[in-house]
Amino acid sequence: MRARLEARREPSRAMRLATPPLAVLLTMVAGAVVFQIMGFDGPAAIHQIFIVPVIDPSHWPDLGVKAAPLIIIAVGLAIGFRANVWNIGAEGQYVFGALAATGVALATWEMEGVWILPAMCLAGLAGGMLYAAVPAFLKTRVGVNEILTSLMLTYVAIQLLYYLMRGPWKDPEGFNFPQSRLFTDWQTLPMVMEDSYIHLGVPISVLIALAVWIVMGRTIVGFEVRLAGLAPAAARHGGFNAKRTVWLCLLAGGGLAGLAGTFEAAGPYGQMVPQFPVGYGFTAIIVAFLGRLHALGIILAGLVLAVSYVGGELAQTAAGLPHAATGMFQAMMLFFLLAVDILVRYRLRFGRPAAAEGSA
Amino acid sequence: MTPEITIAILMTVVGASTPILLAALGELVVEKSGVLNLGLEGMMLIGAVAAFAVAATTGSAWLGALVAMLAGAAAALIFGVLTLTLTANQVATGLALTIFGVGVSSLVGAPFVGMTVEGLGTLFPESLADDAWGRILFGHNPLAYVSLLAVVLVVWFLNRSRAGLILRAVGESDEAAHSIGYSVIGVRYLAVLFGGAMAGLAGSCYSLVLTPLWADQLTAGRGWIALALVVFASWRPWRLFLGAYLFGGVMTLELHAKAAGLSLLEPEFLAMLPYLATIAVLTIISLRRSGARAGAPACLAKPFRASA
Question: What is the pLDDT along chain B (308 residues), one digit of tens a residue?
């Protein structure tokens, strides 16, 4: 008896929900095997990475803080991915947005007022949108592939950050370290609760995901984006302008990435430093797929990836696992998801093919 | 400019162009078969770390380069299984492969950070390269000659060989190639493995030739530039060759400016140039032709599953 794949008439809804947890499970098993082969205690490392951050409440605030930027960036990217607009330069938009917010912070450094923080957020949003507008313009006007342009701009943004930190934006009282001034109290995100380090950006990230969920599911704009991905010809016939969709997707993705960068700078960092880009923009791609490009799924997926970050740090101290293991682990999750996704479109069958399906 | 400086510039341009030419040639063959593998950067990093690890532990740079090719092909095999057998989205899988390569290379490379190895050196004995022409002809690293040979071989393969004709047929019309009995998936697997081996070799160029010193993310986005190069060349190997040397020139501007004592631009702005140049070049060719896809294989990135 041989196993074979049989095409489903329609993609399975149950499988769409089942494959992301299955992928995480497979990653845990495969990860334990890989770490064991590499000479670590595999099961113990997996326990540190995936179980400890979830069962130990002292790590929960950290999960929220790590998940917030991932969720905000991923819901923005997912809008584009649904319409087949492949913005993979979120890391650059995240940095550029944060730089715009830092610019406002440095210009208002000696001022006081509750308006300063919202101004920084607006600048971050606008900065991210502006940075994503470059690939949008080149795609719609000239037809240049947005994958390459958005990615190239990421490297440019990081160099710009290095330049500003080393040169014009260096803290004049910072003993010549390449980093900006510390933001003032008016320029940092308030904490949600006393004595915890959950900043205001964490609940806002969930609100943003909920807002995107409503926009994508209940409004004509959301319909336009989804239709552009599922049936581009139908979208054109329906009178939707394909170029407008591209602009919409890139501006939404860039703006949200810029806002996430602002929250990070005005939250956990409290200043701008050259080490600011840590790859959230790339990890958010994994979050978007693991969350099935759906805003609610992305909240869960953002938490899963946050667990892997927090647990990865724990495994460094507890099991001696190198820092880089986390990145490999996160990519494996996406590999397994892409692999098991065949179950959404195909059914695993055993035995001989049914007579009815002989025709080609 | 003195002749010495001119020759020095020429030598560094060849060095910088070689890896992107190798990687882009591999990707060109992959894309000609109708597959888009965006994981070039990841495969290059895996090749780079494999080469370094082997060279550092065995002392043989040549063995390192060979293992780099195998490692690149192994990484490409993951991509092949996911996209060709399991029909996963090629764009998403390629991105995953890049993220994976970044992780694997910094994991495997962690114990080697800051270490140096004996690189590949030059191919010909130094006595041949003692005057100006000698250096220009015989003074390069071995992979530079490999890359030039590879251009000729790929041109011959695609245009003159029967296997190359089949590969192009698979990329232009998978259904037709399938209906006359060619294995679309089989051909694409071979192309993807070739692309992986070339990317691995390109990666080894960074760790064994350009900087025989291990650092994280050694390839610094050059894999993406190689991808852009394929579009720039409209899928033609000769134009790829020209493009690689053009980009090699832009990439080494930073070095030359430093050497000449010029400080027109801050170093960070010089470092931006290759990426900005890529965007500019993609824009110009897209303006000139009716869209950048002119010359692209018709089945590029389209999944194929044999019916019946």
Answer: 577 777 888 888 888 999 999 999 999 999 999 999 999 999 999 999 999 999 999 988 899 999 999 999 999 999 999 999 998 989 889 999 999 999 999 888 888 888 888 877 777 777 777 777 777 777 788 889 999 999 999 999 999 999 999 999 999 988 899 988 899 999 999 999 999 999 999 999 999 988 878 888 888 889 999 999 998 888 999 999 999 999 888 888 777 776 676 667 788 888 898 899 999 988 988 887 654 456 788 888 888 877 64
Q: Which residues of B touch A167 (CB under 8 A)?
A: 266
Q: Which two tokens mark A279?
A: 């790859």
- The amino acid present at B114, given as its one-letter code, is G
β-bridge mates for residue A349, sequence order:
A4
- One-letter identity of residue A333: M
In angstroms, the CA B233 to CA B13 distance is 19
Q: Report pTM.
A: 0.91
Q: Is A166 on the interface with B (CB under 8 A)?
A: yes
Q: Number of folded domains in chain A?
A: 1
Instruction: For residue A28, give Cα distances in angstroms to A244, A332, B234, B276.
Output: 41, 9, 42, 40
CB B24 within 8 Å of CB B236? no
Q: Please list, residue by residue across B112-144, b when 16 or more beta carbons sit within 10 angstroms of its beta carbon and e when fewer do.
A: beeeebebbebbeeeeebeeeeebeebbbbbbb
- The neighbouring-strand residues paired with A6 are A347
- B224 and A148 within 8 Å at the Cβ level: the answer is yes
CATH of the domain at A299: 1.10.3470
Using the Cβ of A326 and the Cβ atoms of chain B, whether some distance falls under 8 Å is answered with yes
Q: Smallest Cβ distance to B228: which of A148, A289, A342?
A: A148
Instruction: Count contacts between A and B (CB, < 8 Å).
Output: 134
Q: Check CB contact under 8 Å for B231 and A148.
A: yes
Chain A residues touching B234 at Cβ < 8 A: none
Closest CA to A96 of A288, A253, A243: A253
- Domain residues for the domain of A174 are 3-56+72-354
**Chain CA centroid to CA A347, Å:** 31
CB within 8 A of B66, min separation 6: which ones? none
Residue A65: inside a domain: no
Q: Does A286 touch chain B (CB under 8 A)?
A: yes
Task: Give the closest residue to A70 by CA, choosing from A263, A281, A255, A323.
Answer: A281
Of A134, A152, A167, the CB nearest to B224: A152
Lookup result for tokens 């917030």? A68
Q: What is the least distance, in Å, from the CA of B200 to any CA of chain A?
A: 18
